[in-house]
């Protein structure tokens, strides 16, 4: 077989797979990633897009934010991030998923800004099944998606988007599935009250909704979003000095020597907490009051967004895993940041030294 014939054969197999996918999944799901709108603002010249957009707003300005890590930190700790200008839109006659917040036009295409990233929608956050779910018409008042994603993404992506959308449409309803974690329901009731929460497992075909674009690069949080969250959810700081956010109750994510780390923290006078046992209000108060926060890498550290008194964060990375999202969040808030690596166990002597160092600095 010649190289050209091999290429044609490969292209033909891809075309057959795409055709089969569209036949099986329909024009919306089967059309991804070819049929989607990356930016509504860029496509407003197209009548099929423009007729669904009533108004657009600037959600956040374009900005470069810098994270001043110590010189000795390795280059994998990213020192800057350029954020594009992000928008929000008042839409009409669209379909909206209460499960993920994904929005698409009748018959397609998908509006990528509703979910943040095509990479996410086809990868770890695959939502191609959602256009195949039953559809229910939801007429009347404007709607805002309030999807119960994983805690980090809900707190730092979904929640600030909903807060901004409510500033555009203060009387809107919040749409979520029937079954949601307690913190999601508590936040929704804080924002709009129980009477304006719509719980639905079907896809909603709505007359009107507000889409506040989600940051496509997960893990990067603008300072403007932090300020927006803190203004919408004031916290009453708890009377606590240093806290260790344990993952002992999470067998899949706990450190291999989590129990030993807990004992060492208690001996050092550190309060050990389990984030999953705390209400949304209690988590806000705990992180608002703590001066030192020690924790394995995980969603509990997203609560640093509430920090008011924190002076020191110590993060424990599991072996062979690294993500600097909480390091950047700490520096964005002006909090000193240190880390240790569990290889494979968390080094108790290094942790103890860091905790004592923070205590000596008045943490």
UniProtKB/TrEMBL annotation:
Could you say which EC number(s) this protein's record lists?
2.4.1.255
The chain's coiled-coil residues are none
Q: Which UniProt keywords apply?
A: Endoplasmic reticulum, Glycoprotein, Glycosyltransferase, Signal, Transferase
Repeat recorded as keyword: no
The enzyme's main class, written as a single word, is transferase
Q: Does the keyword Endoplasmic reticulum apply?
A: yes
Q: According to its UniProt record, which reaction does this protein catalyse?
A: L-threonyl-[protein] + UDP-N-acetyl-alpha-D-glucosamine = 3-O-(N-acetyl-beta-D-glucosaminyl)-L-threonyl-[protein] + UDP + H(+); L-seryl-[protein] + UDP-N-acetyl-alpha-D-glucosamine = 3-O-(N-acetyl-beta-D-glucosaminyl)-L-seryl-[protein] + UDP + H(+)
The cross-references to InterPro entries, in alphabetical order and at most eight, read: Glyco_transf_61_cat, Glycosyltransferase_61
Residues covered by the Glycosyltransferase 61 catalytic domain: 151-313
An example Pfam family from this entry, by short name, is Glyco_transf_61
PANTHER family (UniProt xref): EGF DOMAIN-SPECIFIC O-LINKED N-ACETYLGLUCOSAMINE TRANSFERASE, GLYCOSYLTRANSFERASE
Q: What is this protein called?
A: EGF domain-specific O-linked N-acetylglucosamine transferase
